[in-house]
TrEMBL record, chain A:
This is ABC transporter permease. It comes from Devosia oryzisoli. It is found in: Cell membrane. It is a multi-pass membrane protein. Keywords: Cell membrane, Membrane, Transmembrane, Transmembrane helix. Pfam families: BPD_transp_2. GO terms for cellular component: plasma membrane. InterPro entries: ABC_transp_permease (IPR001851).
Automatic annotation (TrEMBL), chain B:
It is a multi-pass membrane protein. CDD domains: TM_PBP1_transp_TpRbsC_like. It comes from the Bacteria. This is ABC transporter permease. It is found in: Cell membrane. Coiled coil: none annotated. The chain crosses the membrane at residues 7-30, 50-83, 95-114, 159-176, 206-225, 292-311. GO terms for molecular function: transmembrane transporter activity. Keywords: Cell membrane, Membrane, Transmembrane, Transmembrane helix. GO terms for cellular component: plasma membrane.
TrEMBL record, chain C:
Belongs to the ABC transporter superfamily. InterPro entries: AAA+_ATPase (IPR003593), ABC_carbohydrate_import_ATPase (IPR050107), ABC_transporter-like_ATP-bd (IPR003439), ABC_transporter-like_CS (IPR017871), P-loop_NTPase (IPR027417). GO terms for molecular function: ATP binding; ATP hydrolysis activity. Pfam families: ABC_tran. Residues 20-255, 272-517 form the ABC transporter domain. Keywords: ATP-binding, Cell membrane, Membrane, Nucleotide-binding, Repeat, Sugar transport, Translocase, Transport. GO terms for cellular component: plasma membrane. This is ABC transporter ATP-binding protein. Its main location: membrane. It comes from the Bacteria.
């Protein structure tokens, strides 16, 4: 392996991932074939559903927004040497922050409300990540356990708060009172009719800002430098005068704040109220997104988009091809994660051979 | 006396709740000790629960179901191994993928085969692993103290439960007193040490994954063919993650793993009993407050007494050797 | 076990066939041609030295012989027979054992477990272990290889860990033993012990291949020596017919000054002063016990001592890496309060630069690019506000590269891919270019080739002459003697004496280091214990400073 | 054509969604006409699916579950010519038919049977988690039981604290066992897919259980005392037929005992364990409730339970 020259950069960062996605779809296609459906048609439907028309694009972007936040929440922690499995719970708690401020000031114009919701979603999410961070830094409690447990605790706590405290009288659904229309984050469709009535809303701008911010934070700030030093080598970090305790706690809090943005998108934008279990697994998808994006904001953005497209294209598929159910789509997603993520290097060796031969053929 | 009987019953429940966790936890122990992080335990549990229930329902044999449960887990392990050992992919992604795969595939196939929305047909008692009465359990039942202990707590579980408990000393023995265990632990700490001693890291890691599959396969089977009669969607309900937490809590050691799993089981069993009870002084508390108790207690224990857990050094890092 | 193999050997192999013969070995790593057409003959029953600069290809060649890497082309003959050594198991079967530069031990295993790992003879460990225990006793007796079989590796000193590596090889019946830079991390006493062992082994008829950067060692123990340069084998000589200067020249391709040349010191005001310092190690055991001394501007103070007598803790306390228990540190007359997470930053801000003893563990983030390590510890100086001035950092890195001749001159190369000598230069450049008041240096030339050693020594003296106060700790007594203007000897946490390097003779220093004070009283307390106690080990498990150097790229 | 959008639990949740599915199948069998269906996997899909169906001309579009209220409120006005049905909640729009069930009334009858069957004077109810809808079942059940035996003790234990609980069958088994261990001899499950575990635990222990939503008596004949059926299937079927026959009407329909929208199931599977006394008591209570002589309190009105 090492005797060969490494792959050209464009192959590494462009061709290989694309081939991997194609491979994943090939395997997914076999499953589609197995249930007697036409895989080509299925791919067509998916692509059309995800990117073919305005509303579809809007849905894709809506999911992408969630996954960007969740993915960044995992990535950032990873750079500091931690594995944050708690995005789910952090986002859930973020929802509490968003709804509390929104209901307290219900009726305020969204231009004022939007930033407030961001702040409160971030604060509450950050709080839920701060505790595991603190326990890791000060007490050595393994962050993986504590964040897993905090997901479970969030479920109980939020279920109590929603059904017993926030739920208005006489309402059947398990949800809080609604945020007034004027206070909600506007949908993109209100500015560009292209997006139709899709749920994509201005939160996506927050996601883009978050991406840029994280990119800057990780690679261009002193904090990011310290974070990465800690993640690579805690002893050297201490040598460099970097406080591990402080870094762990702050990094986790930032991660939680990012996860809390999932709530801004959903509670403040799409649903306009706090409903039970609104995070719906986005926190876990974030793990896959972060790792597939190799912790790099650009990678995270791309893999979040891939997952967004899979979610939206998948639902289009379920709609247009009734033989294909939502479980099949989950299965295809699994294939994509497997082939583009975990088995991403499967085609590397054949490709290397190919490029090697070309290289030697080129030189007499 | 009533309290004693209650205690026995709660402990009995503790055992039943702990078994799937314990099996998954020991399964994870083998793979992580060999240097392979397995966040896919959840998916493996679910997948093998499905495989076991399906085959048990179709053939009518719980034992064949068990084989199928293990078989499914083996397939999952093979994928995990291919991705993370041969292709040196990221073990976490591979595990997450397996979790997705299990969630999607079980319901999809279940629906295709049984048309019951992913549920498998309900299993009759002869298609399940049912409680075994140990010798003299009935005779001793009336003896005070130990009678109840023996006939309720020790006797009257299904065979998989006994296996799970035997697996603990067995694991301790394999890990610390056999050649295989020595190498297994070494490969998770410093695979290069093995490689330079002329042993195949790949082979050992696959062996570990096979054991992982067997254990977690039994765990999945327990869920669908012993504890309940038949599979339904997502019935693993996060047990794989809890098992992972238990593994870290136990610092990757078999006896502590047993204790931690029993603790989790006990807190759950207790929690069921405490719901709706009027407590002295505070009175009724919201049921959610009781339900978070196990998690809170775990966190307090972790932060207060357990200290730092140091994972096997090579865990999560693919072994690459330049050739 | 050993006796049967050696007798078989005598029967099968022609008496005069060399133990090892390599012919035309080639090995590429990507674009790097690490071994170019190497031929090498190693005679049976000799100690064969291999020298060469960092990155010359020594380790690669030996890894090929040991079957850990496979050569692109070429053949290997063992006892005159051609063998295709495909993996290490094969090499072991041929009686080739190797002690790697970075030990291949499982840290949290016992010595015994490490020795039997991979050479167990039954599925159950019990019998193997008791057999190995017996055999270890025999080996300890025959070769002076004493180690407690039940000690955990992580509790052992490097010297003892190395003995375990040798035991491992001998336990497997090695007839040919390869040692890759075995003395790089050893104290002189440990090195002497090692050489005694090697001599015994040779006298037993075993063949030894020794890689080292220390020509003194080559001269002292080898029978023949081969020189590698830039992947090629440039010469093989009989040791008795060559000289260090000749070897050095063959290695580097130019004349090397083996002696440090420096003018006399012009000490000025006191820069660093330490009063009654008491420092404990990670387990709370005092390692530095009421130490006082001072370093003036323009002088180099060397601390000599057998490692484990408190020098490391002293360095770490002065640089803020370790809390002090009692006493005080003064910089330019002002007291320094160094506690907590930020102590290292405080020390640095006050004007103390620190070249740590262990560059991999502490001085570098090996997963970082070169420019990132060039500012490690000074990151806050680059850019105002929260942003990092990357351009500025890279400019500094380029400057370091230029001044210190760091190779390859690539600021964006991952630091792990630099050779040890160049890694050391990255650290030195970073710390020296800061214009500190005080420079604290631990083991400046560990694992570094002689060309680089010469350069590093000159730089240290340049610092002194620029009016800096330099505090130096090294296990190389030669180095301490030739660089220092004053030598402080530490034993068991105390300063047991001071010597003038110009007048002190080696014997006197040696006695001091062994705890025999000027007035002839021998210290009663021993040095560091061989094995840490059970409680200590427990404490270690809970020790928050978990050392990991994993790549954080997911 | 009509269409159904199943809620989060999925089409085959062995309870609510599945009942809607059965109704649709009934319609399909009878008329030979098809229908569209989708399962949501995220909350955003509620509106999305509603619009998709509406845009493509499906009517009526049936949404089982109160979680669809918000989505319907925003989508229904956009499609005034499309008909919508929401089950379990009220959406006050001209083109929406809201169907409510008086689960508490049906559960009241189940409570009567449980109390009469119990020998220990202890019965239990196992909801999936602390959700108002499920509390309404439990509360009706308690009232019914108390009406028979004022001293009866009713244990209520939740399986979990989130939607996961609807799937966690193994835990449901354990929760039921813990009640049985405490002397309960009839348990009522209100836990969707996981509920099968409750029935199983009772059967394993030789005790009795009560099924929910659809008739589950056949699952463990001789152990499942009865099932509190909620005729979601009928409501679904009716909505589809009404549209087909041109009888569509909006407004709110409340289905209680009087309308046969809820009730307890008697069939050959539980014939051997149900006594004539029980049947008589159930029938009497049914009449009383219909006539208004007995009023069953609905937990949802004030989030409290008198019993
Ligand atoms: N695993 C590897 N991958 C890529 N290149 C390598 C690898 N190992 C060694 N090299 C290259 O091969 C050359 C020879 O390395 P080698 O380790 O044999 O040097 P060495 O003589 O042992 O140096 P040192 O004195 O520092 O130990 C190096 O310059 C390096 O560039
Ligand atoms: N993965 C790698 N890729 C490229 N070059 C490598 C790699 N690993 C090692 N090298 C090169 O191999 C050479 C020797 O590596 P080695 O690990 O032996 O370091 P070293 O110089 O001996 O360091 P030290 O003396 O600190 O142990 C170095 O020149 C280094 O650049
Ligand atoms: Mg080397
Ligand atoms: Mg070296």
């Amino acid at each position: 392996m090492s005797a060969r020259a490494p792959l050209p950069r464009w192959v590494d960062i462009a061709l290989l991932p694309v081939l991997n996605v194609v491979l994943a779809f090939l395997i997914g296609g076999l499953i589609v074939l197995a249930v007697g459906q036409n895989p080509l048609q299925a791919v067509g439907v998916m692509v059309y559903g995800a990117f073919g028309y305005g509303t579809g694009v809007g849905y894709t972007l809506y999911y992408t927004t969630d996954f960007i936040f969740a993915g960044l929440a995992v990535s950032l922690a990873y750079h500091a040497g931690m594995f944050n499995i708690g995005g789910e719970g952090q986002a859930y708690l973020g929802g509490l922050g968003v709804i509390l401020i929104a209901l307290a000031l219900n009726g305020l114009h969204w231009t004022v409300m939007f930033p407030l919701m961001i702040v409160f979603g971030a604060l509450f999410g950050a709080f839920w990540a701060f505790i595991p961070g603190y326990l890791q830094a000060k007490r050595g409690s393994h962050i993986v356990i504590t964040t897993i447990l905090f997901n479970f605790i969030a479920t109980s706590v939020m279920s109590y708060i929603i059904t017993r405290i926030l739920k208005p009288e006489g309402v059947n659904s398990d949800e809080s009172a609604p945020i007034e229309a004027i206070s909600r984050i506007p949908r993109l469709g209100e500015f560009f009719s292209f997006f139709g009535r899709s749920p994509a809303n201005l939160s996506i701008l927050v996601a883009i800002v978050a991406l840029v911010f994280c990119y800057w934070l990780i690679w261009h700030s002193k904090f990011g430098y310290a974070m990465r030093a800690l993640g690579h080598n805690p002893v050297a970090a201490r040598y460099a005068g970097i406080s591990g305790t402080r870094m762990i706690i702050i990094t986790m809090a930032i991660c939680g704040a990012l996860a809390g943005m999932v709530a801004v998108n959903n509670v403040g934008g799409v649903q306009g109220r706090l409903i039970l279990n609104f995070v719906n697994g986005a926190g876990f998808v974030g793990i896959a997104v972060a790792f597939m994006g190799r912790g790099h904001p650009i990678g995270v953005a791309l893999s979040a988009l891939l997952f967004g497209a899979l979610y939206q294209g998948g639902q289009e598929l379920a709609f247009s091809m009734p033989g294909i159910t939502k479980e099949m789509i989950v299965t295809i997603q699994a294939m994509v994660i497997l082939f583009t993520g975990a088995m991403g290097d499967m085609l590397r060796i054949p490709l290397m051979r190919l490029f090697d031969r070309r290289a030697t053929a080129g030189t007499p | 006396m009533q309290y004693y009987t209650d205690l026995i019953l709660i402990l009995d429940s503790t055992v039943r709740l702990a078994v799937p966790l314990l099996l998954a936890c020991l399964a994870g122990l083998y793979s992580e000790r060999a240097g392979i992080v397995d966040i896919g335990l959840e998916g493996k549990l679910l997948g093998s629960a499905f495989g076991a229930a399906t085959v048990a329902a179709v053939t009518g044999s719980a034992w064949l179901g068990l084989l199928a449960g293990i078989g499914v887990a083996l397939c999952f392990s093979a994928v995990h191994g291919l991705a993370s050992i041969n292709l040196k992919g990221n073990q976490t992604i591979s595990g997450v993928a397996l979790n997705f795969l299990a969630a999607g595939l079980t319901t999809f196939l279940g629906q295709a085969w049984f048309q019951r929305g992913g549920m498998t047909p309900q299993l009759g008692n002869d298609q399940r692993f049912t409680p075994i009465t140990l010798p003299f359990a009935n005779e001793l039942a009336d003896v005070p103290i130990i009678g109840g202990l023996y006939s309720e707590l020790i006797s009257g579980h299904n065979i998989l439960t006994y296996f799970a408990f035997i697996a603990v000393p067995l694991t301790a023995f394999v890990l610390f007193s056999t050649r295989f265990g020595l190498r297994l632990r070494a490969v998770g700490e410093n695979p290069k040490a093995l490689d330079t001693a002329g042993m195949s890291v790949t082979r050992l890691r696959y062996q570990a994954l096979i054991i992982t599959a067997i254990l977690v396969g039994i765990g999945g089977t327990y869920l669908s063919v012993a504890q309940s009669s038949g599979f339904n969607n997502n019935m693993s309900a996060g047990r794989g993650y809890i098992a992972l937490a238990a593994l870290i809590f136990a610092k990757w050691r078999p006896w502590p793993a047993l204790l931690v799993c029993l603790l989790f089981g006990f807190l759950d069993a207790l929690q069921f009993r405490l719901q709706g009870i009027d407590f002295p002084v505070i009175g009724q508390v919201p049921v959610q407050a009781i339900q978070v108790l196990p998690y809170l207690l775990t966190i307090i224990l972790l932060a207060g007494f357990i200290g730092r857990a140091v994972a096997p050094k090579a865990a999560g890092i693919p072994y690459t050797k330049e050739r | 076990m050993a006796s049967t193999t050696s007798s078989q050997r005598l029967e099968t192999a022609a008496a005069q066939a060399p133990a090892i013969e390599l012919r035309g070995i080639n090995k590429h790593f990507g674009a790097v041609h690490a071994n170019k057409d190497i031929d090498l003959v190693v005679k049976r029953g000799t100690v064969h030295g291999i020298v060469g600069e960092n990155g010359a290809g020594k380790s690669t060649l030996m890894s090929i012989l040991y079957g850990f890497y496979s050569a692109d082309s070429g053949e290997i003959l063992v006892d005159g027979q051609r063998h295709d050594i495909t993996d290490s198991r094969h090499a072991l079967a041929l009686g080739i054992g190797m002690v790697h530069q970075h030990f291949m031990l499982v840290e949290n295993f016992s010595v015994l477990e490490n020795v039997v790992l991979g050479a167990e003879d039954s599925p159950l460990l019990g019998k193997t272990l008791s057999k190995a225990r017996e055999q270890m006793k025999a080996l300890a007796r025959d070769y002076g290889l004493e180690v407690n079989p039940d000690a955990l590796i992580e509790d052992l000193s490097v010297g003892q860990q190395q003995r375990v590596e040798i035991l491992k090889a001998l336990y497997r019946g090695a007839e040919i033993l390869i040692l890759d830079e075995p003395t790089g991390v050893l104290t002189p006493a440990e090195a002497d012990h090692l050489f005694r062992i090697l001599k015994t082994l040779r006298d037993e008829g075993k063949t030894i291949i020794l890689i080292t950067h220390k020509l003194r060692e080559i001269m002292a123990i080898t029978d023949e020596v081969s020189v590698m340069r830039q992947g090629a084998m440039v010469a093989t000589m009989t040791t008795s017919e060559t000289s260090p200067a000749e070897l050095a020249e063959a290695m580097v391709g130019r004349r090397v000054l083996l002696q440090v040349e420096k003018g006399s010191a012009k000490p000025a005001e006191v820069r660093l002063e330490v009063k009654n310092l008491v420092v404990a190690d990670d387990f709370g055991i005092p390692r530095v016990k009421s130490v006082s001394f001072s370093v003036r501007a323009g002088e180099i103070v060397g601390i000599a001592g057998v490692s484990g007598n408190g020098q490391s803790e002293l360095l770490e306390a002065i640089t803020g890496m370790r809390n002090i228990r009692e006493g005080a540190i003064f910089l330019n007359g002002k007291p320094l309060a160094l506690t907590g997470d930020d102590a290292a930053a405080d020390a640095r801000a006050a004007g103390i630069a620190h070249v740590p003893e262990d560059r991999h563990r502490m001085g570098l983030v090996t997963g970082f690019q070169e420019w990132e390590n060039a500012i490690l510890g000074y990151q806050d100086k680059y850019g105002s506000g929260p942003a990092l001035d990357i351009g500025g950092a890279k400019a500094a890195a380029r400057e370091h590269i230029g001044k210190f001749d760091i190779r390859p001159p690539d600021t964006e190369l991952k630091t792990a891919n630099f050779s040890g000598g160049n890694q050391q230069k990255i650290v030195l450049a970073r710390e020296m270019e800061r214009d500190p008041d005080v420079l604290v240096i631990g083991q400046p030339t560990r694992g570094v080739d002689i060309g680089a050693i010469e350069f590093i020594h000159n730089e240290i003296i340049r610092m002194r002459d620029a009016g800096k106060a330099v505090l130096l700790v090294s296990v190389e007594l030669d180095e301490v003697r030739s660089l220092s203007d004053r030598i402080i000897v530490m034993f068991d946490g105390h300063i047991v004496g001071e010597a003038d390097p110009a007048t002190a003779d080696e014997g006197e220093l040696g006695l001091l280091m062994a705890g025999v004070t000027h007035d002839g009283k021998a210290a009663t307390v021993g040095t560091t214990p061989d094995v840490k106690t059970v409680t200590e080990r427990r404490l270690m498990e809970m020790n928050p400073q978990q050392i990991s150097d994993k790549d954080a790229e997911p | 054509d009509p269409a159904i959008i199943y809620d989060g639990g999925g089409k085959f949740d062995a309870s609510f969604n599945e009942a809607a599915y059965n109704g649709a199948e009934m319609y399909k069998k009878e008329t030979g006409a098809g229908y569209g269906e989708l399962e949501i996997s995220s909350d955003a899909q509620r509106e999305q699916f509603l619009r998709q169906f509406a845009e493509r001309g499906y009517s009526p579009i049936i949404t089982p579950g109160y979680n669809f209220v918000t989505a319907l409120e925003s989508v229904a006005p956009e499609f005034p010519d499309t008909h919508f049905v929401i089950l379990d909640a009220v959406v006050d729009l001209p083109n929406v038919r809201s169907v409510l069930f008086k689960e508490h009334e049906g559960s009241y009858l189940a409570g009567i049977m449980a109390a009469m069957k119990s020998e220990s004077g202890k019965i239990g109810v196992v909801p999936a988690f602390n959700l108002d809808l499920l509390e309404a079942f439990a509360c009706g059940y308690k009232q019914g039981a108390k009406s028979v035996n004022g001293d009866i003790e009713v244990l209520e234990t939740y399986i979990g604290s989130g939607f996961d609980a609807f799937n966690d069958k193994p835990k449901a088994v354990e929760v039921a066992k813990s009640q049985l261990d405490q002397g309960v001899d009839v348990v009522y499950q209100v836990a969707g897919g996981a509920g099968a575990g409750v029935l199983q635990a009772a059967a394993d222990a030789g005790k009795f259980s009560i099924g929910v939503d659809s008739n589950q008596n056949h699952l463990y004949p001789g152990s499942v005392l009865t099932s509190m059926v909620k005729r979601v299937d009928v409501a679904t079927y009716n909505a589809m037929m009404d549209e087909k026959n041109g009888n569509w009407s909006g407004g709110t329909i409340v289905l209680g005992l009087a309308e046969d929208g809820v009730g307890v199931a008697f069939d050959e599977n539980n014939a051997s364990i149900v006594t004539d006394d029980m049947k008589a008591a159930v029938e009497k209570a049914r009449q009383d409730i219909i006539s208004g002589a007995v009023e069953v309190h609905d937990y949802r009105t004030d989030q409290s339970c008198p019993a």
